[in-house]
Amino acid sequence: MTIDPGAVARPTGRSYLARRRRTGTLLVLPALAVLALILALPIAASLALSLMDADTADFRFGVFVGLDNYRTLFADPVFALALRNSIYWMVVEVAVVVVVALWFALLLNHPMGRWSVFRIILLVPWALAPVANAVLWKWIYNSSYGILNFLGTATGVLPDPVVWLGDPGLALNALLVAEIWKEIPFITLLLLAGLQNVPRILYRASRLDGAGPWQTFRFVTLPQLRTTILICIVLQSIWALKSFDLVYVLTRGGPANATTMLNFLAYRVSFQFGNLGLGAAVADILFFVMFLLALAYVRVFRPARAAERGVA
Amino acid sequence: MDDRRLVAPRGLTRRSLLKRGAGLGAGALALGAMPPFLAACGSSTPSGPKELKVLTNQPPDPAPPGVADYSEEAFATWQTDNAARVSYESIPYTQIHDKLATAFASGNPPWDIVYMSGWVPEFSKNLATIGDMISAELKSDLPPSSFKTVTWDGKIQGVVFTLSLMTLFYNTEHFEQAGLSEPPKTWDDLLRYTKELTRDGRYGWVNNYGAPEGIGGTANLWMSYLQQAGGTMYDEGGLPIFNDAAGVDAAQFMIDLWDAGTEPGSISYVGIADTTNVFTAGKASMMMNWPFMWKPANDPAASAIAGKIGAAVLPAGAAGTASIDGTDAFTVTTASKSPELATKLIEFYLAPEVQKRQVLDTGWLPIRLSTLEDAEVQAAATNAPIVLEQAKSPYDSFVTPDYIEVTQAIGTELQRCIRKEKSAQQAIKDASDQVASIVTSR
């Protein structure tokens, strides 16, 4: 008599798997409920608020207005400017932060750059409290007393002191410099971790093949860092869209709305103008953009996880 | 009928009654199970002192006794006499409006008394009417115009506690060096003086044009020029009427003043403190500022120009001099369980002796006319007579429920015309259109 092990195991396995799935679901349910409470509920409340005419003085008596708040926003030139500023801010910040951070990571990964003091120094801007960082830059950019104008005029680089935060184009880029300075350290650490995971054998092989430093970087380092770089781009894009403290402390969105971005606009409309419905609409548009970026982040992660499973 | 009331709480149903009953039962059980010391937290016992919670500024902005260092003994005595315990939440001025907005939106603000700076119309529904509770003696000793910014829909909802009008401050040493013997009296004088004083690496004038909105912002500063030019903001129906010759002249004057020698950083300064620093460092010769500046600017530890400061009424435009009102007031929230006691505390803040110590110890002028006339006060705050003189002319900040939105719109257009992106005429027209849209959608 022969026994088909599959025939015996199949029904038992199926019920076991079903039980296991059911138990797993039950065990996860409390956590899902908590997540729904602290994540989904505010998101849903914010979406609902964006469909209401509600202000801070009369919040509890909001009136349903459908998509009126979104129509108002799309007809508002300040919203259009804030959207443009946010996109410009995100693109430039991500590009500069990732490129500079990659350069720093390469330096820190070099045998001469492995002294731990370098990493500690690198972390200082990131470790500063956001508002303290903003106040620091406010003094750096001050047109009368700022160190930037002092150094610039003392060395002859600047013929006259510059009002860094007084010109629309200059002000946005001045804020960007301060933001980039703050954001570089963390991305550097992420990329450094990625660099340290590149198998040494690939570098030895490339050297044997006669590759120079640029070719090694181009054909070994960059492809190996691809996933890390993509993660950095997506994360940094999300963080860039959330920028608020520098605008609040240094320019309040001015001059003439030149540094107003979506996040600051949402705050201004909600808490300064008291229009919670319209402010929620701005915040929800921002949320939608960030949600798309988060989806991209998940997609970036997926091939890596699949590959890990394949290796395992 | 206010259609917003349509979504007000519905009538009782069996289900809602059961839910409320269950909720109450659970609450009672929870309280019963709670240790007595926890249940007692945050409330006063029937026989203990009543607690009053106050949201106010952090010094150096105007703050009451117990937050700023003055009248502390009198404050302690008042608490004992009234069986009250006053607890303060003092935060920077720039954060107060937003904190109030969120607290009022929650429907449950934790304070009895809150500081206001031009926001009474905006938060009117959340503030108690205290006009009838204020003593006649106090009312008669306050400038009648001081009630304008704390009155909405005919209800007095607060009391201003410091006479805070913008006046002119100037550097007497710079004036002597330029051969100027008296402060400018007219717009033409001011432009001429600004040109003459712009030399030796310093500027004739400095102002904070960086933040367009709110009291003391770009739009608010323009309102002083608007009144000096003979204009006003709104007609009787509340619609904007500043798009006229006076409105344009006021904006053009800001441009002319800029060209004459306004410190270039002025377009980036977002607060009065930024501007004050430039003036007290001797890098600018004139500015308009609130009266509080007199004391710190004459303190050698904080100022490079101590003892070299003059004050004067603001130079006159076509219609004479005029100013704007800082509108620093205390109000009682509708959430207060002790509005009478809260009003009594506000009256204490405005008691003659407290008002006197307020100016002598902190530099913030009193609002009581009798205290302003006090010889000791006038000797210590030599700018007080100037502020009183300024108060004889119009000083309106034109506060409305949408004040921040309105001033944001006007101030942004003014920034554009100061930066020469628009003519004064175009900027005022665009600002007027935006304000009309804001007030009609109110």
Blueprint of the fold:
The complex is a heterodimer of chains A (312) and B (442).
Chain A: H1 5-49, E1 52-53, E2 63-64, H2 68-74, H3 77-109, H4 116-127, H5 130-141, H6 147-154, H7 168-196, H8 200-208, H9 213-241, H10 245-251, H11 262-272, H12 276-311
Antiparallel strand pairs in A: 1-2
Chain B: H1 14-33, H2 36-39, E1 50-57, H3 72-81, E2 84-91, H4 93-106, E3 113-117, H5 136-140, E4 151-152, E5 155-156, E6 158-160, E7 167-171, H6 172-177, H7 187-197, E8 203-205, H8 218-228, H9 245-261, H10 272-280, E9 284-289, H11 294-297, E10 309-312, E11 328-332, H12 339-349, H13 352-362, H14 369-372, H15 375-380, H16 384-390, H17 403-418, H18 424-440
Parallel strand pairs in B: 1-2, 1-3, 8-9
Antiparallel strand pairs in B: 3-11, 4-5, 6-11, 7-9, 7-10
Helix pairs in contact in B: 7-9, 8-9, 8-17, 9-18, 17-18
The topology string of helices and strands of chain A comes to HEEHHHHHHHHHHH
**Uncertain parts of chain B:** 1-45
Task: Summarize the helix and strand pattern of chain B as letters.
Answer: HHEHEHEHEEEEHHEHHHEHEEHHHHHHH
Average pLDDT number of chain B: 89
Any guess at the CATH architecture of the largest domain in chain A? Orthogonal Bundle
> CATH topology of the largest domain in chain A, what is it called?
MetI-like fold
Q: What structural class do you assign from the helix and strand content of chain A?
A: mainly alpha
Per CATH, the superfamily of the largest domain in chain A is MetI-like
Q: Outline of chain B, from the CA principal axes?
A: globular
The outline of chain A comes out as flat
CATH C-level class of the largest domain in chain B: Alpha Beta
Under the CATH scheme, which class of the largest domain in chain A? Mainly Alpha
Kindly report how far apart the N and C termini of chain B lie: 15 Å
Largest β sheet strand count, sense and barrel closure of chain A: 2 strands, antiparallel
Beta-strand percent range of chain A: under 5%
Count of individual helical segments of chain A: 12
Strand order of the largest sheet of chain B: 2-1-3-11-6
Structurally, how many domains make up the residues of chain B?
2
Computed over alpha carbons, the radius of gyration of chain A is 26 Å
Main sheet makeup of chain B: 5 strands, mixed
